[in-house]
């Protein structure tokens, strides 16, 4: 049994993928080729947003957002600690300061009350300027965007939706990009919408921001708006107006993603069916099974339960050849790199508790019912 079976998906669309890859190889347009533009159009349409700008990975997508807003030393960026390190690690790239916020015990997503308390605390201390909030759609389900947006509006903060694990999720039929100034995603292969390498994107309603990020991803190249003002008629990448980076998406990855997008809605339904089956079986039988926010649709990047004896359960599953993973055993604020950003002691109790008990079970659209049964039976048979 695979924890995530990427080959099952490949078998479903193998001829289409092979044709797309061949077409790109024959075209010779290997970086930012026409498929990249087409993918950006389709990603924006998927979210009902005006713009999508692709980039090299989901980490760069976050960094590009912070660069566009010119974050600098002394600026505070509020984010959860219970997420992949990338969410917070980009903040010190800009010299800014990650301020860690606790999560809700049932959804593992940012706790709006903890966010507001952190913003008030930072404002009262007066050492840092509250600037940006990064909410994460952890394990595939949307954060509480209406509450988080309201806090951002109250304190004049920008909002990023780090939807690397949740691209495709909705809350009241709306996408995270409906609330966030910028939504970022990752196309890392194991993500619900993954490619065959690294890739990422930002989605935004803001045309000026999309144009600026398009410039920052190619060394701060001149944008069409800049060019009109400057009368510059050469290749835009040879006039650099701002410090940017190289974060282009390969055309091959875009071509692969275009094929995967065609089956993405169906795959989300298939993931939902697996999740519903797990949830029905685990009701009242585990320390905690996932709960999705009211009105939310998860894309089930992970299906995570909790167990008092998590290590015992993991060993018990392994003995039956059932793979499982711990996301995340060490919250970001306890990682060595984050030592200097340590939050006040005891301010992240839910995060610290979750990291000791969570266990992710096999989850992907093509998980056969027999395998689902094996996972369910093994979890329920564990008496650790
Ligand atoms: C929540 C979250 N944010 C950001 C990232 C970074 O994405 P990437 O690996 O494409 O840089 C990841 C993925 O690993 C993630 O899970």
Describe the structure.
- The longest helix has about 30 residues, at about 250-280.
- The protein has about 375 residues and is of the alpha/beta class.
- It starts with 5 loop residues before the first helix and ends with a helix.
- It has helices at about 5-10, 15-25, 35-45, 60-70, 85-95, 110-125, 145-155, 205-215, 225-230, 250-280, 310-320, 350-355, 370-380; strands at about 50-55, 75-80, 95-100, 130-135, 160, 170, 180-185, 200-205, 295, 305, 360.
- It is about 40% helix and about 15% strand.
- The chain has a seven-stranded mixed sheet, with helices on both faces. A two-stranded antiparallel sheet has the order 6-9. A two-stranded antiparallel ribbon has the order 10-11.
- Bound molecules: pyridoxal-5'-phosphate.
- Pyridoxal-5'-phosphate (PLP) binds near residues 59, 83, 165 and 200.
């Amino acid at each position: 049994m695979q924890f995530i079976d990427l080959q099952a998906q490949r078998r479903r669309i193998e001829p289409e993928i092979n044709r797309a890859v061949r077409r790109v190889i024959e075209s010779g347009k290997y970086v930012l080729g026409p498929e990249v533009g087409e993918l950006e159009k389709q990603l924006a349409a998927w979210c009902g947003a005006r713009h999508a700008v692709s980039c090299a990975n989901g980490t760069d997508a976050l960094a590009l957002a912070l660069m566009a807003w010119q974050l600098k030393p002394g600026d505070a960026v509020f984010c959860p600690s219970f997420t992949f390190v990338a969410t917070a690690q980009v903040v010190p790239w800009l010299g800014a300061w990650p301020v860690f916020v606790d999560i809700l015990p049932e959804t593992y997503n940012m706790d709006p009350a903890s966010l507001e308390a952190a913003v008030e605390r930072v404002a009262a201390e007066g050492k840092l300027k509250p600037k940006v909030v990064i909410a994460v759609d952890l394990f595939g389900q949307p954060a509480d965007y209406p509450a988080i947006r309201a806090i951002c509006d109250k304190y004049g903060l920008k909002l990023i939706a780090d939807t690397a694990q949740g691209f495709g999720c909705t809350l009241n039929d709306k996408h995270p990009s409906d609330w966030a100034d910028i939504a970022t995603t990752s196309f890392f292969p194991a993500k619900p919408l993954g490619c065959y390498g690294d890739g990422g994107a930002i989605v935004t309603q803001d045309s000026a921001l999309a144009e600026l990020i398009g410039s920052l991803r190619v060394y701060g190249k001149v944008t069409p708006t800049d060019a009109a003002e400057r009368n510059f008629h050469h290749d835009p990448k040879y006039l650099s107006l701002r410090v940017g980076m190289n974060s282009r998406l390969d055309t091959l990855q875009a071509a692969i993603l275009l094929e995967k997008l065609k089956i993405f809605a169906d795959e989300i339904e298939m993931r939902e069916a697996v999740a519903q089956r797990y949830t029905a079986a685990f009701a009242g039988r585990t320390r905690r099974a996932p709960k999705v926010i009211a009105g939310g649709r998860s894309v089930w990047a992970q299906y995570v339960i909790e167990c008092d004896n998590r290590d015992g359960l993991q060993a018990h599953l392994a003995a039956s050849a059932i793979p499982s993973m711990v996301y995340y055993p060490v919250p970001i604020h306890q990682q060595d790199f984050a030592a200097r950003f340590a939050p006040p002691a005891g301010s992240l109790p839910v995060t610290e508790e979750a990291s000791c008990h969570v266990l992710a079970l096999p989850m992907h659209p093509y998980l056969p019912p027999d395998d689902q049964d094996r996972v369910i039976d093994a979890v329920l048979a564990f008496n650790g």
